[in-house]
Amino acid sequence: MIRHEMITNQELYSLLRQEKILFGGNLNLKIYGSLRCRSGKRMKRKNRVFFKDEVEALARCYRPCGHCMKQAYMDWKNGSV
User: I need a labelling partner for 54 at 20 to 30 A (CA). Which of 9, 30, 35, 61 fits?
Assistant: First the structure.
């Protein structure tokens, strides 16, 4: 997990190009989702974290976003995850 406030914009762009970051999350709400999610784009930098993959996010007890990851969210909600 990488905290957005701990890296520069250049470091962020580099990690994105190298595909070392594929998901974003909210530190306070413990929700993760797509980097293109409308909800995720509105959060404050201090609350944003990044994950390499879904496995990492789930291992840190984050849940899928109900907007951009509807099926994964429904699976999580129904206890399938």
Answer: 9
Question: Which is nearest to 37 in space by CA: 47, 26, 28?
Answer: 26
9, 11, 12, 15 alpha-carbon torsion, rounded to 10°: 160
Q: How many CB atoms lie within 10 A of CB 76?
A: 16
pTM: 0.91
Average pLDDT, the chain: 94
DSSP 22: -
The highest-level CATH class for domain 2-77 is alpha beta
